[in-house]
UniProtKB/TrEMBL annotation, chain A:
SUPFAM superfamilies in UniProt: MetI-like
InterPro entries: MetI-like (IPR000515), MetI-like_sf (IPR035906)
Record's bilayer topology term: Multi-pass membrane protein
GO cellular component: a single term: plasma membrane
Xref: PROSITE patterns: ABC_TM1 (PS50928)
Subcellular location: Cell membrane
GO BP annotations listed: transmembrane transport
UniProt-annotated stretches for the region Disordered: 1-22
Domain of life, source organism: Bacteria
Protein name per its UniProtKB record: Carbohydrate ABC transporter permease
Organism: Amycolatopsis mongoliensis
Keywords from the UniProt entry: Cell membrane, Membrane, Transmembrane, Transmembrane helix, Transport
Annotated ABC transmembrane type-1 domain residues: 96-288
Family: Belongs to the binding-protein-dependent transport system permease family.
UniProtKB/TrEMBL annotation, chain B:
Protein name, UniProt field: Sugar ABC transporter permease
Keyword Membrane in record: yes
Transmembrane residue ranges: 33-60, 92-113, 125-145, 178-199, 232-255, 286-307
Membrane-topology annotation of the record: Multi-pass membrane protein
Signal peptide boundaries: none
Family that this chain belongs to: Belongs to the binding-protein-dependent transport system permease family.
Organism of provenance: Amycolatopsis mongoliensis
Record-linked Pfam families: BPD_transp_1 (PF00528)
Domain ABC transmembrane type-1 positions: 88-307
């Protein structure tokens, strides 16, 4: 690095060409653009900061010192007062368990049903599978509101308007997106490995389970993650099909708590509830951001 | 095709018998593999949609009552009602105005983010609102836009400290605008992510070439980025239309007092269906709810077909 050494005086061919003179010029549009980008980014970080700090604040602090660090509850020595309130009084404790089990099982079941279907639609060479894939993909455009009435009538008649019915609905309604996503992954896999397995005498079923499925692992993880986020946040179906407060999901519990909390000015507990819903997904996102983004790209950008 | 395959078919199967047998075994796998997912799809999406269409032509107060055919009465009555007109208009506002705002922002960001330091981190941060439950997002925005003297929300807190007057953001007259702005903020990250992924696939020499020629960011966007990502822009547009049309929880919570439906002026089609089915104000009316659900399907179909027609271009190979 030091200029005095003789080595550096020997002229080397630069690895990367220098940027052209025009590109580094400050121009007003670039300046405006990057300041908007930074403002926007800072805004999002501020939102996250506000959410996390407000969850530890008293209602007065939330409204009068929105940007300060929490003080009162820490001063009194019970910093987790809001979380404790949401956990016990608003039923978030039960809801966490219900949501984790329901979302976990539904996500795994969705992928378990969708992966063979996506494989069959892309790699078995059956005529008509192209149009059939499109028919399934159209299902992504159907708003849930459209199917909710017939499903509600039928499921409540057979007494499945509870978490079991919701499980089946979550799996069934996640299928169009998941199949569509996974067909993209299976289509991108090389033919050679499949042919090699066939030459080695592996049956088609075995080829699927021991060759193709492991190869599509990245796609399966993406599908699991995106479904987990989607179902964790799902509210409409949970509002319609869950009646028993003991088996509410998190978003459903939050929805119910909202009305009550506004009446009682229990804003601290409410924001702690929001944090309980949001933060686990934030962690999942931070861990798997690259997979999530690659999955979205595959789904959207062919 | 048919005439071509008939003659040489026997020879092909003769010479490649082993391959043919394997292919047949593979094809036999199709239904066992595809049937479970397709059956669930049929039972929980296709059939209920058809049932909704049929029910939309009946008078049906709700569970316990029996549906009675009544022609297009639901549709005419729905079309004449204030609540549906608000819902319809708001939904169109969210789809079009929100779409223009979101995509304008996303395009601006593709111009800037491509050669910005820390772009990956920025993208991840911008995506953040998309992993938040719409219910939680609505509540948070409710806090931001709260108007209550002495207990002002974040936006009014900032306004008052800047010396301005607090505004009633969530008054019925303003709520559509506030929701549109919120929607643009919350969803732009998703579209930025998708468009940026497409931009990353564009060969960099095109930009280098443009830079040597001294092109401005706008010229680069207009002549390189947009034509090269046109396909993805089209898909993103379809996704936007679908997602904006079924918006429900965000508005319900942001504009409403809590578990009751918000004032009519803030309604969307999704809220109309929900309110007529499980409504807190008045008795349920499944017939009307089904009619509105059919209107949603019709609207999404029309908009998507129109969008695809508008976006149709010759594909660029690169």
């Amino acid at each position: 690095m030091t200029l005095s050494s003789s080595e550096t005086r020997v002229r080397k061919v630069p690895r990367k060409p220098r940027p052209a003179p025009g590109s580094r010029r400050l121009n007003p549009l670039r300046l405006l653009g990057s300041s908007i980008v930074w403002l926007f980014t800072a805004g999002n970080v501020l939102v996250l900061y506000w959410l996390v700090t407000a969850a530890f604040k008293t209602p007065v602090e939330i409204f009068t010192k929105p940007f300060a660090l929490p003080y009162q509850w820490f001063h009194l020595g019970k910093p987790f007062r809001n979380f404790a309130y949401a956990w016990t009084n608003a039923g978030f404790g039960d809801a966490v368990l219900t949501t984790v089990v329901l979302v976990g099982l539904a996500t795994v079941a969705t992928v378990a049903v969708s992966a063979p279907c996506a494989y069959a639609l892309t790699r078995l060479g059956v005529r008509g599978s192209g149009p059939l894939t499109n028919v399934v993909a159209i299902g992504m455009g159907v708003p849930f509101q459209t199917v909710i009435i017939p499903l509600f009538v039928v499921l409540s008649r057979i007494h499945l308007d509870n978490e079991y019915g919701l499980f089946v609905l979550y799996v069934a309604l996640s299928i169009p997106f998941t199949v569509f996503l996974l067909t993209g992954f299976f289509r991108s896999l090389p033919d050679e490995l499949e042919e090699a397995a066939a030459l080695d005498g592996a049956s088609p079923v075995r080829t699927f389970f021991s060759v193709m499925l492991p190869l599509a692992r990245g796609g399966l993880i993406t599908a699991l993650t995106l479904n987990a986020i989607g179902l964790w946040n799902e509210t409409l179906l949970a509002i319609v099909f869950l009646k028993d407060q003991a088996h509410f999901t998190l978003s459903r519990a939050l929805f119910t708590f909202y009305g009550a909390a506004s009446y009682q000015s229990e804003y601290g507990g409410l924001i702690a509830g929001v944090a309980i819903v949001v933060l686990p997904m934030l962690v999942l996102y931070l861990v798997l951001a690259r997979r999530i983004i690659s999955g979205l790209t595959l789904g959207a950008g062919k | 095709m048919a005439t071509l395959t008939t003659a040489p078919a026997p020879r092909v199967s003769e010479t490649r018998d082993a391959g043919g047998a394997h292919l047949r075994r593979k094809k036999r796998l199709f239904w066992p593999f595809a049937a479970p997912a397709l059956a669930l799809y049929l039972a929980f999406l296709v059939l209920p949609t058809l049932a909704t269409v049929v029910l939309s032509f009946t008078a049906w107060a709700g569970a316990g009552d029996t549906p009675q055919p009544n022609g297009v009465t639901n549709y005419t009555r729905m079309w004449a009602s204030d609540s549906f007109q608000y819902a319809f208009r708001n939904t169109l506002v969210y789809v079009f105005l929100g779409g223009v705002g979101t995509f304008a922002l996303a395009f601006l960001f593709t111009m800037v983010l491509r050669d910005m330091r820390g772009g990956k981190v920025v993208r991840a941060i911008l995506f953040f609102p998309n992993i938040v439950a719409p219910v939680a997002l609505g509540m948070f925005l409710g806090f931001v836009f709260k108007y209550q003297p002495g207990k002002q929300g974040l936006a009014n807190f900032v306004l008052e400290h800047a010396g301005a007057d607090a505004a009633k953001f969530l008054a019925p007259a303003n709520v559509t605008g506030v929701v549109t702005a919120s929607l643009i903020w919350a969803s732009s990250g998703f579209y930025i992510t998708i468009l940026m992924a497409a931009v990353d696939r564009i060969p960099p020499y095109l930009y280098e070439d443009a830079e040597l020629g001294g092109a401005s960011p706008w010229q680069k966007f207009r002549n390189i980025t947009l034509p090269m990502t046109w396909d993805v822009v089209g898909v993103a547009g379809v996704l936007w239309t679908i997602n904006a049309l079924k918006i429900f929880e965000l508005v319900f919570v942001l504009a409403g007092p809590g578990t009751y439906a918000p004032p009519n002026q803030a309604w969307t089609l999704g809220i109309y269906v929900f309110d007529r089915t499980f409504g807190s104000n008045g008795t349920p009316d499944f017939g009307a709810a089904c009619a509105c659900a059919v209107a949603m399907i019709a609207l999404v179909s029309v908009l998507v077909v129109l969008l695809r027609r508008v976006m149709r271009r010759d594909a660029l190979q690169f």
